[in-house]
Amino acid sequence: MESDQLLVLLVLALTFAFFVWGRWRYDAVALLALLVLVLFGIIPGEAAFAGFGHPAVVTVAGVLVVSRGLQNSGAVDVLARWLTSVGRTPTRQIVATSGLAAGLSAFINNVGALAVLMPTAIRIARQSGNSPSAVLMPLAFASLLGGLVTLVGTPPNIVIATFRADASGEAFAMFDFAPVGLGVALAGLAFIALVGWRLIPRRDAAASGTLFEIGDYLFELRIPEGSRTHGQSIAELGAACEAEFLVAAIVRGDRRLALPSSFEELRAGDVLVVEASGDALDALVADAGLEVASSRGGAVAELGGGEVVVAEAVVMPDSPLLARTVVGADLRRRHHVNLLAISRRGRQSRSRLRETVIEVGDVLLLQANRAELPSALERLSCLPLAERGLSVGRRERRALLAVTIFGGALLMAAALRLLPIQVAMAGAAAVMGLVGLLSPKEIYESIDWRVIVLLGAMIPVGGALEETGVAARAAGALVAVSGDLPAWTTVAAVLVIAMFLSDLVNNTAAAVLMAPIALGVATRLSVSPDPFLMAVAVGASAAFLTPIGHQSNLLVMGPGGYRFGDYWRLGLPLEAVITAVAVPLILLVWPL
């Protein structure tokens, strides 16, 4: 038994280390951890993939699909229109945007709520002369706070509910989280709106309206008579030169060819508008026999004229661009889009564009035809940092239909308790597909399969913690450290440890790892497990110290111009407020 415990601890330590390292996808790491424990006989082979049929996994998938249906219907857009009249002061804008984000996140996926509201928040901040950096971090944090209120608000709540069902035979219901979660959310929102936003550093890039300064890197190059470039295509020119460059436009006599094809044949007399670094420019001129005509200031405005537009867009967690280089993505040929620049963590990337591996939260400066840009962004799963056009009429009727379907599912599961929550959410997703709110393709695309694999793999791993006695030993150590201190200190310790884990690893994984320990602590103290499970639920969703703690934090990093170290300035006092409010509320609502 000792050897089994040591093996489980070693696997968990390595898993946690790889989670923090971040170079490997967390779903792949979780799956490897599961397979290692199966190979060593800790988890029986026949139970290896039982986690993928777990109610928590089905519920999370159903909630993600229903969230996409609500977004498609325009239900969230109808609410977002209200933000345009909230006022010009940062406090009023933060109260409005963050309050709406928290309310939406209680019922739909928090990343989805953030994605819909972020362009509007940026627009109203810029129009009033405020920096978007003042509103975007509060918006992301509010989306996490809102998830605390209901069972479907965030995956950790679903995980905790199923652990409670395994321990006591009855899961937490839809609104069992509300007495604690609502109090914590309101306290957190009040702190952010009144005090916290003033702790966020202002970033000039975010306030200026663009994260990119590509004017210094755009040049006009003329093809002289007799140049060996005459007769070559753009692709052939790229293959013949060592320099990294991008032909954004061609001026040919009185014509201007924006977004030229890589097969466009170049001619003597053409003027190429090229994006390149200074060193690349020198190499290009020498290798291709071109002449420098001028550098181009105001590059974004120049490139965005006519039917060709330039747009900033954030890479979403489900984007097909993730983990691919610009060359591998082949944006121009496949999607008729030019990638002009990348901003990562609030700073424009100065590395070789072709070799840059695209990550979640990167802000891309894209050039495309006006008519083709929306469909290209949808295919690439990139969020444009401009307010979407909102339509009425039929769209509002679709919104009412979507809300009715979702409300009916909640009524069946929460109020009448006629169906388990996983069946209700799966049924709502199916009905949304049948009535045309979601296409079959969108149903599969809306599910974050990384979270599904992570959860399906980690549930058996969490079970191994209990089966081998590791959770009991960890619980014993925690109780021993608490000593003769009041019981509330142990509840606070469980919450703080879960909070710390969620700042470093995926919050779903933090909940799976901490729930068995919380149950062990309750057993050691011979008290109800409910307050400890609620402490895990709150702590696992309070990932405010780092941008890697949650996808919402990462998505606002580029548009807000934030740096890695900016998050703790607001996040640390916010976590202190949450702890101070949550612990007494938990013990009041769920006594020991």
Write the layout of secondary structure elements.
Blueprint (H helix, E strand, L loop, with lengths): L1 H20 L4 H14 L15 H19 L1 H6 L9 H16 L4 H18 L5 H14 L8 H14 L9 H17 L9 H5 L9 E5 L11 H7 L5 E7 L2 E4 L12 E5 L2 H11 L2 E5 L3 H5 L4 E8 L10 H4 L1 H5 L1 E8 L2 E2 L14 E7 L3 H8 L1 E3 L9 H22 L5 H14 L5 H7 L2 H19 L2 H13 L4 H18 L2 H19 L4 H11 L10 H5 L1 H4 L6 H23 L3
Helix pairs in contact: 1-2, 2-20, 3-8, 3-17, 3-18, 3-19, 3-20, 5-6, 5-7, 5-9, 6-7, 7-9, 8-23, 8-24, 9-27, 17-18, 20-23, 21-23, 22-23, 22-24, 22-27, 23-24, 24-27
Describe this entry's structure for a reader.
By secondary structure, this protein is α+β, with helices and mostly antiparallel strands. 57% of the residues lie in helices and 9% in strands. A hairpin with a 2-residue loop joins strand 7 and strand 8. The longest helix is centred in the last third of the chain and has 23 residues, at 567-589. 51% of the residues are buried.
